[in-house]
Amino acid sequence: MSQEINQNFGNQLSLGIGEFSQPVVISASRRTELVALRPDWLVNALKTFKGDIHSVVLWTKDPTNIYAHQELRKELEKHNVSVHLTITGLGGTRIEPTVPKPEAILEKLPDLLEFLGDTRRLRWRFDPIVTLKKEDGSNWSSSVFFEPLAKEMARLGADNCYFSFCKVYPKIRRRKLRESGIHIVEPTIDDQISVVNQMKETASSFGITLYSCAQPILENIEGIVPAKCIDGKLLAELHPQKLQASLERDKGQSKYRPACYCTESKDIGSYFPCGHGCSYCYAEAAILPPERLKQKPMPW
User: Fold this and answer.
1) Residues 6+ apart with CB under 8 A from 91
2) Secondary structure letter of residue 96 according to DSSP
3) Which of 5, 49, 211, 283 counts the highest number of beta carbons within 10 A?
């Protein structure tokens, strides 16, 4: 990342950090990967936040820096931390080209859980579930990775999984991914229900609860829990002093996604290109050019 982009990134994010009268739940970040790609900035943002912090909710596809980056670890030890860790099975493929392979992330989980100290602080995201059209015209779904990942996550102590299906927004179409052999499609509702019912059976066998993230139809399936990815009640239970957090719905999220039930938080990220380069990214992904993407394998 160039020095100019780094400077602009820092300036842009600092604009969103204001003063608050009540302890704030920090989200870092739905918008871009801070933990793995911008840990130094994250440390500074937490140190200079103008207000009391109730909790820090981290979103990442590589948790290594949480426990291995000396300054970040030191800062996070001051806070009530929860981690949303995305493992889709697509790491290292053409779909998530610079994300570590799932095997590599799973190897890091014991160290992460040791740092967190409570398995409830780890929230596994199998999100999004991506459907691809193959050259022969058939559809392939990343849901095939759910069972082996669920088995490993359960073995490590996780009892939750948050999921959604990939939505093909206009910005995704504008990426011209087909030049790289990537054709993302949206499965029908019937296909989604079929996949979720299969996942539900698998999850049940491993003692995992499935949470639907902003999926208004799928949340009505028996056994599926509508997700509060940021959950003030859970964060209060995890807080060392049991300090109450806001239980009000986050209007900034529910305004655009009515089936989002997250409680209030302050997201300190910004929509600068994320170096993971995920082809389905809803924010701003630094997509690799076709000649480089084609060097990565397809996930099947």
Assistant:
1) 61, 99, 100, 101, 102, 104, 105
2) B
3) 211
Q: What is the pLDDT of residues 208-223, one digit of tens each?
A: 999 999 999 999 999 9
Helix (H, G, I), strand (E, B) or coil at 280: coil
Q: What is the pLDDT of residues 278-295, one digit of tens each?
A: 999 999 999 999 999 999
pLDDT for the residue 272: 81
Domain assignment of residue 300, yes or no? no
pTM check: above 0.85: yes
Answer whether residue 299 is part of any domain: no
Domain that holds residue 72: 3-293
CATH number of the domain enclosing 35: 3.80.30.10
Sign of CA dihedral 292, 34, 147, 196: negative
Q: What is the total count of domains within the chain?
A: 1
**Residue range 151-175, pLDDT digits in tens:** 999 999 999 999 999 999 999 999 9
Could you tell me the pLDDT band of residue 22, with boundaries at 50, 70 and 90? Answer: confident
- Does any domain span residue 122? yes
Show the CA angle centred on residue 272, arms to residues 107 and 51, nearest 5°: 85
Cβ-Cβ contacts under 8 Å for 98 (sequence gap 6 or more): 275, 276, 277, 288
> In the predicted model, what is the mean pLDDT of residues 26-33?
97
Q: How far is CA 67 from the centre of its chain?
A: 18
In a domain, 74, yes or no: yes
d(CA 57, CA 293): 31
Q: pLDDT averaged over the chain?
A: 93
Considering Cα of 44, then 47, then 48, then 49, what sign does the dihedral take?
A: positive
SS3 94: coil
Whether 210 and 200 have beta carbons less than 8 Å apart is answered as yes
Instruction: State how far the Cα of 254 lies from the Cα of 95, in Å rounded to an integer.
Output: 28
